[in-house]
Amino acid sequence: MLTLLDDTTLVYRMLIGLGGLCERGVSFFHLKSPTTQVDARSSARSISSLATIRLKLTLQTSIKLHSKLEMGYLKLTFVVTTDASLYGIGAMLQQDDDDGLRPLEFYNKRMPSHKVVASTYMRELYALREALDHWKHYLLGRPFKVFSDHETLKWVQAQNNPSTTLTRWLHEIALYDFELKHKKGCYNRVADALSRHPEYMTCLMGSYDLRKNLKEELVEYIAKDPELSPILEQIQFDPSNQPDFHECKGLLFRRYGKYDRLCVPNHEPIRTHFLDLAHGWSGHFGFEKTYESLLQKFVWPGMKEMARKFVAECEVCQRIKPSRQKSYGLLHPLPIPDGPGESHSIDFTDMGKKSRNGYSQVMVIIDCFSKFLNLIPLPPHAPTDLVIKEFHKRYIMQCGPPKTLMSDRDTRFISADWKDFTYQNYDIKLKMTSDRHPEANGLVEEVNQTVIQLL
Ligand SMILES: [Zn+2]
Predict the structure, then answer these.
(1) Which of 208, 254, 278, 425 has the highest CB neighbour count under 10 A?
(2) pTM exceeds 0.70 for this model
(3) How far does the centroid of ligand 1 lie from the alpha carbon of residue 67, in Å?
(4) Residues whose CB falls within 8 Å of the CB of residue 340, separated by 6 or more in sequence, listed in order
(5) How far is the CA of 270 from the centre of ligand 1 (A)?
(6) Which residues form the Integrase catalytic domain (predicted)?
(7) Measured between alpha carbons, how far is 431 from 405 in angstroms, rounded to an integer?
């Protein structure tokens, strides 16, 4: 269950978990008794008090442990466990001495900012490379095992066309003789804990650093929210009324399968704060990743659209992410025809009203050289075959076919019938302006205005 915890409690828990594992390496450490009561079911308050005791013990142990972590025995097989997160990498060196795996050394390092944007695969590989390099005095020249929680690393050696960086890393890693084994994230707790920043464990917990009163604000605004407050009241009266929801210290959670998501009240600063955590604090990834990260923890109506807008309007993203749109070409003026009858412009103008004969559209044809204008009336929504018929009867039969015909991308001008008629019958070359750029054919647009004005 997702609960709001004080971030120091989280740090305690991480240290407790880590300390618990370290105890395996220290035989004389028997200070477990006050700490075994600390588990996930304890309340946050009781954890805090117990965890304080445990933390002190763990820290004392860690200090003793530092001198007690033994040197590796070169005859035993080494086991390296690695993990990577957005914030850092974590690794552990162990040896199997017939009494389970005994930790020898721990290693963690901050993830360089340029690696953060790399794929998970690259981050995991980076963690592996750094760990191997750190313990090369133990590992070079002898077989050992590597556990990692990212399954794709298993195919690391069978890459087709790897990038330059990847090739270099693979060459460095190829110096070692190891067997790569997948270890599920849930069993990879130590490396996991070493690689993760406490603020990243959950958005909620991390947020306490900045806004100590966030929980109080949430409780206050959930109680005021017109949609959430009735649900909260119903649950407090009888929890079976709302089986999809549950309440915890004034906060409302909605069940989605195994997971619970916090119902965020309709209060702009709180929602923006969570959006900022999922986007700005998590590395300014695109909409998909931001929304995915939000979906794991929160729910509110219109969250998707709000996230999309937030990402699109993010100032940092706009500043640092270059546009990959291919640059537009230069605008070229239309060629000047050599004489009359060579180049014509054609367009439709809607009059917005019907004439007595039932016409409402005008086909405007203009000679680009002599500016000779021909107007052909058409009924509303004239189909292509009628346009062809009228153009043939009232224009070509009287003025002759032009060499080129300039038009916009009206559906009738891009239809196969129109192309067949102009090209096959009269060998007219069709030229079309770009979409939504009527200014490219300025002459005919100008005439359209005048026609509308006169009629
Ligand atoms: Zn951004």
Answers:
(1) 278
(2) no
(3) 45
(4) 367, 369, 370, 372
(5) 18
(6) 336-455
(7) 6
Lookup result for tokens 């001198």: 67
Q: From first to last of the 455 residues of the chain, give the pLDDT tens digit.
A: 334 444 555 556 666 666 555 544 443 333 343 333 444 444 444 444 555 565 556 655 555 555 556 677 778 888 888 888 766 788 888 887 777 777 888 887 877 756 655 677 778 888 888 999 999 888 888 888 888 776 666 666 666 667 777 788 888 888 888 888 776 654 555 555 555 544 333 334 443 344 557 778 888 898 889 988 888 888 888 878 788 888 877 888 888 776 678 889 998 888 998 898 888 877 888 899 899 888 888 899 999 999 999 999 988 888 888 777 777 777 777 778 888 888 888 888 888 788 888 888 889 888 888 888 888 989 888 888 899 998 888 888 888 888 888 888 888 888 888 888 888 888 888 888 776 666 667 777 778 888 777 77
The structural domains of the chain, ordered by start, are 74-200 (3.30.420.10), 214-320 (1.10.340.70), 343-454 (3.30.420.10)
Q: Which amino acid is at 450?
A: T
Chain CA centroid to CA 224, Å: 32
